[in-house]
Specification:
Shape: globular
Strand order of the largest sheet: 1-2-3-4-5-6-7-8
Strand content: 5-15%
Mean pLDDT: 94
Helix content: 40-55%
Distance between the termini: 21 Å
Radius of gyration: 18 Å
Number of domains: 1
Bound molecules: flavin-adenine dinucleotide
CATH architecture: Alpha-Beta Barrel
Oligomer: single chain
Largest sheet: 8 strands, parallel, barrel
Order of helices and strands: HEHEHEHEHHEHEHEHHHEH
Structural class: alpha/beta
CATH topology: TIM Barrel
């Protein structure tokens, strides 16, 4: 099923994100974890794509497995900046052949080597170019794109970032998923600004449950997200107690999701990181809300 059709449903929805295994030996355990997450009956599951190779070969396998064995819609991520047009074309053709309907079209992060290289020598510079290539191969794919309530780290300012986001949507991104954020006001301000800029496609807020203290630094480094004092206090207080930190992190993420639903958002995407227990706890906290009429 196309994600744009799912997002039209008049009910509260929750989707999850998983990542493919980094090595062959991890394949079975990741497959089992993603199937357990699929058993929670999310609206869809997205499967990330390792930009520098490594895990990229498994994205399609995991996305296909979730759909074929669990009958859950999957969204396969694809990045382009560290690849060439021929390889990307082959990946898109393989997705088409496998019956994948939804692609998250991403540029990918710049590796240190790419940062030192001349951008004009890259075959792809922006996700917009990938979207154009996907559409030239098949108009049947439903394409998603990434967006950044706290600005993409390489952008000079939010106005420029939103201008390029509009180009991405005009090129064919039919829905957007946000980078993680820990303060919902940042998301609501962003939503207001992009609507004002004429971006009308559905936007899925991305929520990352922080369930251990070690995740905090990595999450900030990856996303540049602002950590509200309320969240910092929670990590200060419970960071050294794994069980307490997990429970508090799940509660914080649940609270963010409820606030989003309460303020007019129908669908939320959770960065569940191959943790079925965390995904299940959040799902359970929302059991009397998910699926109810909006
Ligand atoms: P783009 O949309 O190309 O934007 C990148 C930067 O270029 C922005 O600053 C933008 O403003 C600017 N820009 C765009 N067009 C132009 C233009 N014409 N001229 C000048 N500047 C321009 N990474 C992975 O490796 N694998 C994944 O599976 C993955 N999944 C993700 C899922 C989500 C929801 C998000 C938010 C991120 C994900 N990422 C993933 C990370 C992503 O690859 C990085 O954030 C990357 O740095 C930017 O990707 P993008 O598609 O947003 O790039």
């Amino acid at each position: 099923m196309k994600i744009t059709d799912i997002l039209k449903r008049d009910e509260y929805g929750l989707s999850f994100e998983v990542f493919p295994p980094k090595t062959d030996s991890r394949y079975d355990s990741v497959k089992t974890a993603t199937e357990k997450i699929a058993d929670l009956k999310p609206t869809f599951i997205s499967v990330t794509y390792g930009a520098g190779g490594g895990t990229s070969q498994y994205t399609l396998d995991i996305a296909k497995n979730i759909r074929d064995r669990k009958n859950i819609t999957s969204l396969a991520h694809l990045t382009c900046v560290s690849s060439d047009r021929e390889t990307v074309k082959a990946k898109i053709e393989a997705m088409k052949k496998a019956g994948i309907e939804n692609i998250m079209a991403l540029r990918g992060d710049l590796t240190p080597e790419l940062m030192e290289s001349d951008p004009s020598e890259r075959e792809y510079r922006y996700a917009t170019e990938l979207i154009e290539d996907i559409k030239s191969i098949s108009s049947d794919f439903c394409i998603g794109g990434a967006c950044y309530p706290e600005i993409h780290p390489e952008s000079e300012n939010q106005r420029e970032d939103i201008k390029h986001l509009k180009e991405k949507v005009d090129a064919g991104a039919e829905f957007l998923t946000t980078q993680m954020f820990f303060d919902n006001n940042l998301f609501f301000n962003f939503l207001y600004k992009i609507r004002e800029a004429g971006i009308t496609v559905p936007v899925l807020p991305g929520i990352m449950p922080i369930t251990n203290a070690n995740q905090v630094d990595r999450a900030i480094k990856l996303s540049g997200s602002f950590m509200p004092q309320r969240f910092k206090s929670l990590v200060d207080r419970f960071g050294n107690d794994p069980d307490a930190m997990k429970q508090a992190g799940i509660a914080y993420a649940t609270d963010q999701i409820i606030d989003l639903y309460a303020n007019g958002i129908r669908n939320v995407h959770v960065y569940s990181m191959n943790k079925p227990d965390v995904a299940a706890a959040i799902r359970s906290n929302l059991s009397d809300i998910i699926g109810k009429a909006f």
